[in-house]
Amino acid sequence: MKAMPLVLWAAAWLVAVAPGPLAATRVTTAPVPVSAPALASVTDAAAAVTEAAAAVTADVAAPAAPVVNLSGEVVERGTRRPLADAQVIVADLGLTAFTGKDGRFEFEDVPAGVYTIIVPIVGYEKFQTKEEIKRGERIDVRYFVEPAAGNLEIVVEAERVRKEVTRITLKREEITKVPGTNNDALRVVQTLPGVTAVNELRGDMLVRGSGPFDNLILIDRLQIPFAYHFGGLKSVYSSEMLSRIDFYPGGFSAKYGGAMGGVVAAETRPGNPDRYTGFADVNLLLSEGLVEGPVNEKVRFALSGRRSYLDFLAKPLTKALAPPGQYDFTVFPQFYDYQLRADVDTTDEHRFTVFAFGADDVAKLFADVENDREPGIRGDFYVHNAFHNQAVAWNYEPSRKLRLRTTGAYYTVPQEAALGQSDKLDILTRVPVGIHDGEWDHGDSTLRFGLQAFQINYRLDTRFPRLPQRGETDYSFTDAPRISTRRATRLTNASAYVEEIWSASRDLKIIPGVNAGALGEVSSPYADLRLASRFSPVTQTTLKAAVGSFHAYPNPIFLDRDFGNPELLPQRAIHYVAGVEQRFGDDWEASLEGYYKDLRDLVTSNAGGDTPFSNGARGYSRGVEVYLRKNFTRNFFGWVTYSYSQSRRTVPPEATLYLFQYDQPHVANVIASYRFNRAWQVGARWHYASGNPYTPVDGRVYLIDKGFFVPVFSPQLYSRRLPATHRLDLRVDRSWTFDTWKLLLYAEVWNAYLHSNLLGYNYNYDFTKREDIYSFPILPTLGVRGEF
Amino acid sequence: MKTSTRSRFCLRWAFAASFSLAALAGCQDAKPELGPGDVRTLRVLAVQSEPADPVPGKPALLRAIVLNPTPDKVGLVWAAVDPSTVLASEGARGELDPRALGFAGLVTPPVVLPAAASPSFPFAATAAYVPAVSAPGEVTSVAVVLLARTGELDIGRALDPERQAAYFKQLLAEAVPAVKILRLNDDPPNENPRILSVEALRRVYEIDETSNKVTKGTPLGKFDIPPGATLEMRANVEDESPLCESEERKDYGKRGTSCVSFSWYATTGLFHGFVRAAEPWTAPYEAGIYTIVVVARDRIGGLDWYIQDVNVGRSVAPGKAGRVLLRSVNAEPKTTPAARLYWLPVDDPALMADLRAKAGSSEVFTAAVTVRPDMSERLGLTIDPASFRLVGGPQHTTSLQAAAEHEIAAEIHVKLTIEALDE
Question: Which residue of B has its CA nearest to A230?
Answer without folding.
Answer: B20
